[in-house]
Amino acid sequence: QVQLEESGGGLVQAGGSLRLSCAASGGTFSRYTGVWFRQAPGKEREWVAAINWSGGSTYYADSVKGRFTISRDNAKNAVYLQMNSLKPEDTAVYYCKIGQIWGQGTQVTVSS
After folding, report:
1. Is the distance from CB of 61 to CB of 69 less than 8 angstroms?
2. Are 101 and 3 contacting, i.e. CB atoms less than 8 angstroms apart?
3. Given pLDDT bands bounded at 50, 70 and 90, which one contains residue 14?
4. What is the pLDDT of residues 39-48, one digit of tens each?
5. DSSP 29
6. What percentage of the chain exceeds 70 in pLDDT?
7. Which residue among 64, 71, 89, 107 is buried most deeply as judged by most CB within 10 Å?
8. Coarse DSSP helix, strand, coil percentages of the chain, rounded to the nearest 5 percent
């Protein structure tokens, strides 16, 4: 069974950093784009960052550009999201998606 599992969420003060991981199991995802989304309470899920299959191209939402970095390690079937200079408005459940498979989400809370 193909699964994605996110980890690395937590509570952090504004200005702090977190690194999210998305580990894939039950299949090989090295040929698929990896994407991070987030959903804040009462808001729609929004796209945050994406990385192509090789890692050679990355894309970011304007709201996180310059603060977040997406990367991947195809040997480990994993996609990462390094989040720096976190703001309270970054508080959300973060989801990864590789191909058509979604993870279950990990909570990120940024206190002011």
Report:
1. no
2. yes
3. very high
4. 999 999 999 9
5. -
6. 100
7. 64
8. 5, 55, 40
Q: Extract the tokens encoding 4.
A: 């994605």
- Sign of the CA dihedral with 103 first, then 44, 111, and 72 last: positive
Amino acid at residue number 3: Q
Tokens of 101: 């498979």
* Cα-trace Rg, the chain: 13
* Pairing state between β 58-60 and 68-73: unpaired
Centre a 10 Å sphere on the Cβ of residue 48 and count the other Cβ atoms it contains. 24
- List, for residues 60-89, the tens digit of each pLDDT value: 999 999 999 999 999 999 999 999 999 999
